[in-house]
Amino acid sequence: MNTQDIPAYMTRVGEAARAAATRMAAASTSAKNRTLLALARLLRDNVAALDAANALDLNAAAANGLSGPMLDRLKLGAKVIATVAEGCEQLAAMPDPVGEITGVKRRPTGISVGQMRVPLGVFGMIYESRPNVTIEAASLAIKSGNACILRGGSEAIHSNLALWKLVQAALVEAGLPATAVQLVETTDRAAVGQLIAMPAFVDVIIPRGGKGLIERISAEAKVPVIKHLDGNCHTYIDAEVDIAQALVVTDNAKTQKYSPCNATESLLVHVNQATTFLPQIGAIFAAKGVEMRACPRAKAILSDVPGATVVDATEADWSEEYLAPVISVKVVDTLDEAIAHINRYSSHHTDAILTTNHPNAMRFLREVDSASVMVNASTRFADGFEYGLGAEIGISTDKFHARGPVGLEGLTSMKWVVLGQGEIRQ
Amino acid sequence: MNTQDIPAYMTRVGEAARAAATRMAAASTSAKNRTLLALARLLRDNVAALDAANALDLNAAAANGLSGPMLDRLKLGAKVIATVAEGCEQLAAMPDPVGEITGVKRRPTGISVGQMRVPLGVFGMIYESRPNVTIEAASLAIKSGNACILRGGSEAIHSNLALWKLVQAALVEAGLPATAVQLVETTDRAAVGQLIAMPAFVDVIIPRGGKGLIERISAEAKVPVIKHLDGNCHTYIDAEVDIAQALVVTDNAKTQKYSPCNATESLLVHVNQATTFLPQIGAIFAAKGVEMRACPRAKAILSDVPGATVVDATEADWSEEYLAPVISVKVVDTLDEAIAHINRYSSHHTDAILTTNHPNAMRFLREVDSASVMVNASTRFADGFEYGLGAEIGISTDKFHARGPVGLEGLTSMKWVVLGQGEIRQ
């Protein structure tokens, strides 16, 4: 397509997506699953061609001096392709969310009223360098009966174009419209501005990337945005707790991996457990080189731990998402103080209580206003795969529509269905 | 409160709402129900005082030359007060939506994952002259565990202030924060601009009023809007149909009341039924003075009906919400054409098929992309009370979050809950 005139180009893309969405909403479960299985096969059969396209991006990126981690994210290769192909097959095996009818109840007037799950329509996905997101987003769109418009990072354009060709081939093979999944074929940034401001063609925008990108898109979008800003996750050690278990879970929540958004960034400890728990977790953190930014009471205890790096926490530390071997630590006097602190400083992503006290567990579950609230588990579990969603298109830190990991259901909504026998309103 | 400095005033209102929302989210079902029952009692006990406040508004409105229907909407009186008091009692009798836990499933890792229904937080409600909306919105906020900020029409300010005092008294009597329901005490329009642009304090805006107001608010809001633009509802007479029943239902859908948004504005008739159905429904419409704006084929048939007013439909007619004794009429050749016409011209509010053919009914249900889709029932049923929601805060024509009548559940969302026994991520 001619991509010179961006507004005209994006309008054509939008119109095609809207038309395809109608066909995808009515598509049979069988056709959608056949598409996913064909896509898995095509991915495996075309590893060499995909690697060749990927090499163009990798060489350009290396020539432009991109860093090692950036090149890592950009790389496809047999292993990444096998993983996304398997993901397509897993989605094919999942129940179709579309058409589910729930809660049908007979009303006094005689009509039966319930709700039917239907696709949202068209979603726009804006993401950065990782080309496997192209397949993840396309496969979720296909299974959920939506059309999508994908705008990947410009540094991955050759890889994305090659992957997209396979998606289109799979759609056509199964008798579905190739335009159900479209890739923005230009790296011109003006296309993003258009994509987020076409309410006639796009129902929701899902950005994935740095906080700056997501804030900018949210501020400028003319359609709803499913957004994930940051993950300042808390683990709270209650007054009554299994200390041995709490040590294992807290260690896992912080140190199993530092970069994910569901890693714990702040540790709250009830004063009754502070002198028991803090020296032991402090020793674990010290051994792994985790810096502790502590309140005065926590610092007094942690400073005695051999080899520990303990500094004074500033006010800013309570809100910080470190994504690094750093954790803020605070001693609290009550469960109420812990809940109030979390509701004030958390990014509302994931927060956990470790406790043996049932009423406290239930109060924490109910009163902590976060997308995922956990009892006696590592915050690292907050993830679409771990929750059984099959795949996730993103994690929402918003309250509206979908909270937390967003899978197939988050790409749908419920319409009302009324089944009558000729009833009229009196 | 000092309302001179609007930004400072609205910030204080917003901060108080956010603080109250935390307490409302944790409020017991019993406290919320006691508030609603106290409010019903206070409303009934204060009819005279409410009428006196209402008289100030009515007199000012009459002096300003407001029209009869406007004065009607503004009027409280014993009957309106009895109705809203009864509404509070009905809400008290309904199950509490907050805290419902659904879909808890054990995962292979050992954790159990489910979802818990929680309040959205703070909603802002912007409405026009009818003061009973103050009680409807307040009572829905209380039962759903939200805080709300109400901005009623300036012409109803004395009535709204008097009603709000009773809401606050009921909250205090039940031990809940008076600030859970706040009324914007100034009629300065700048307050609306502030209310819709405080994402830190307001989670969602619900406007009720004319299309112009709602479009303006949607364009300018910095938070999600649950909006209802218009209701261009269709009734489609299928090829196989119970004609006697179809006549009764179509008549009801169009003529039972002309002003509601769920009244049918457009009639589609399958060509096989056109010569049978159209003359009969045409006679009913002619007798009631309903003007028919018809496609050429429909016009050829309807023009023979004695006393009928039949004119050529223009392209604009297919999109029109008349709210008047006018209906557009089109003959279609297939179910596909009917569905395509509806998906193109409908406002996605409510559309119905009248049919005896089961596959056609199921295709219509699935493929018509509207908030309410009906089989063999009058579109006039699209209503929160008729659907059993107890009450409705509005009707959404959006796809995101909530579609159609929005009741208690539409004012909540689902957070994830994870129940573990010390599990960690591998």
UniProtKB/TrEMBL annotation, chains A, B:
InterPro entries: Ald_DH/histidinol_DH, Ald_DH_C, Ald_DH_N, Aldehyde_DH_dom, G-glutamylP_reductase_CS, Glu-5-SA_DH, GPR_dom. It catalyses: L-glutamate 5-semialdehyde + phosphate + NADP(+) = L-glutamyl 5-phosphate + NADPH + H(+). Keywords: Amino-acid biosynthesis, Cytoplasm, NADP, Oxidoreductase, Proline biosynthesis. The keyword Transmembrane helix does not apply. Pathway: Amino-acid biosynthesis; L-proline biosynthesis; L-glutamate 5-semialdehyde from L-glutamate: step 2/2. One of its GO terms (molecular function) is glutamate-5-semialdehyde dehydrogenase activity. GO terms for biological process: L-proline biosynthetic process. It is found in: Cytoplasm. It is an enzyme of class 1 (oxidoreductase). Gene3D superfamilies: Aldehyde Dehydrogenase, Chain A, domain 1, Aldehyde Dehydrogenase, Chain A, domain 2. Residues 13-281, 311-383 form the Aldehyde dehydrogenase domain. Its EC number is 1.2.1.41. Pfam families: Aldedh. Belongs to the gamma-glutamyl phosphate reductase family. Catalyzes the NADPH-dependent reduction of L-glutamate 5-phosphate into L-glutamate 5-semialdehyde and phosphate. The product spontaneously undergoes cyclization to form 1-pyrroline-5-carboxylate. PANTHER family: DELTA-1-PYRROLINE-5-CARBOXYLATE SYNTHASE, GLUTAMATE SEMIALDEHYDE DEHYDROGENASE. This is Gamma-glutamyl phosphate reductase. The gene is proA.
